[in-house]
């Protein structure tokens, strides 16, 4: 049934998207104003001073650059650890192992970011389980600083993003017929050759999709650097938060958010562009079989 040519089913989505983009449009409009003197708020004149301030501020640019590099590092390690994990889940002949690994990954989604962050504080703290184990084994003479630095934030964020990548790639690996790999081995290819010449190339689009998902989660991380960084690790989300609730500079926070969103969207578009290329160049299944 249609109203003026618009299907009924499109109405909820249209309203939702209008609210989302309308709220962002208002926020972007505020970025062109100036903070009100002596009180939270904003006022005229209308201009680009907030954008100029961000783009000429070494601290702001440094935090943005560190955030991008940090997100890329988390993405790379997620690929290196997540793909073998997904492959084991997809190709393990033991159903119990597959079920346990899948269950462990799904279980991580039941706990929020705050719970995970505090859990890692208990594990990685100076009096935490990891340091106690290292001291008991005689591997270190004093507790190792694993929290309130980049190390703790990286470990916690990797733990958060790894299931997203592994589950994204898992379905793609499962869709590759096992007969294709068996045919390659029958023709003399070893296990590693089959893995790198057959399985990985076929699943490259899924790898890029999973990497894009991990990158978007890592670049927008807020709770982990806030709780595990101890004020020493500041990503761009924490920087924007400080502008809002510490400096009460809403226009500059809006400008920072807009610049961050543009950079994030541009990077994700790059991921999607690579995924499109990989999909077009992928060898058809029929040709492999």
UniProtKB/TrEMBL annotation:
This protein's source sits in the domain of life called Bacteria
Q: Per the record's keyword annotation, is Transcription regulation included, yes or no?
A: no
Compartments where found? Cell membrane
Report the transmembrane regions from the record. Answer: 7-33, 63-88, 100-125, 145-167, 206-228, 248-274
Naturally occurring in which organism (per UniProt): Ancylobacter crimeensis
InterPro entries to which the protein is assigned, alphabetical: MetI-like, MetI-like_sf
Alphabetized UniProt keyword annotations = Cell membrane, Membrane, Transmembrane, Transmembrane helix, Transport
Which residues does the UniProt record annotate as the domain ABC transmembrane type-1? 64-269
Q: What family does the Swiss-Prot or TrEMBL record give for this protein? A: Belongs to the binding-protein-dependent transport system permease family. CysTW subfamily.
| Gene3D superfamilies per the UniProt record, alphabetical | MetI-like (1.10.3720.10)
Pfam families per UniProt? BPD_transp_1 (PF00528)
- How the protein sits in the membrane? Multi-pass membrane protein
Know the name of this protein?
ABC transporter permease
The protein's matches in PROSITE patterns, at most eight in alphabetical order, are given as:
ABC_TM1
């Amino acid at each position: 049934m249609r109203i003026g040519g618009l299907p009924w089913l499109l109405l909820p989505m249209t309203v939702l998207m209008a609210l989302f983009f309308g709220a962002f449009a208002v926020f972007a409009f505020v970025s062109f104003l100036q903070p009100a003197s002596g009180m939270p708020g904003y006022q005229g004149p209308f201009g680009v001073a907030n954008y100029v301030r961000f783009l000429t501020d070494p601290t702001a640019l440094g935090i943005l650059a560190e955030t991008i590099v940090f997100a890329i590092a988390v993405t790379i390690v997620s690929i290196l650890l997540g793909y073998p994990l997904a492959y084991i889940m997809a190709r393990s002949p033991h159903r119990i192992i597959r079920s346990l690994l899948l269950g462990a990954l799904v279980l991580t989604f039941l706990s929020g970011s705050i719970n995970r962050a505090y859990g890692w504080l208990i594990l990685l703290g100076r009096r935490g389980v990891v340091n106690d184990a290292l001291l008991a084994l005689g591997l270190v003479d004093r507790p190792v600083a694993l929290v309130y630095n980049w190390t703790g934030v990286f470990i916690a964020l990797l733990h958060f993003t790894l299931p997203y990548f592994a589950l994204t790639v898992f379905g793609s690996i499962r869709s590759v017929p096992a007969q294709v790999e068996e045919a390659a081995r029958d023709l003399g290819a070893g296990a590693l050759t089959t893995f790198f010449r057959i399985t990985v190339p076929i699943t490259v689009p899924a790898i890029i999709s999973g990497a894009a998902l991990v990158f978007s989660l890592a670049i927008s991380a807020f709770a982990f650097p806030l709780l595990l960084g101890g004020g020493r690790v500041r990503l761009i989300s924490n920087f924007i938060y400080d502008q809002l609730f510490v400096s009460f500079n809403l226009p500059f926070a809006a400008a920072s958010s807009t610049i961050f969103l543009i950079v994030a969207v541009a990077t994700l578009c790059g991921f999607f562009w690579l995924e499109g290329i990989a999909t077009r160049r992928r060898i058809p299944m029929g040709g492999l079989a």
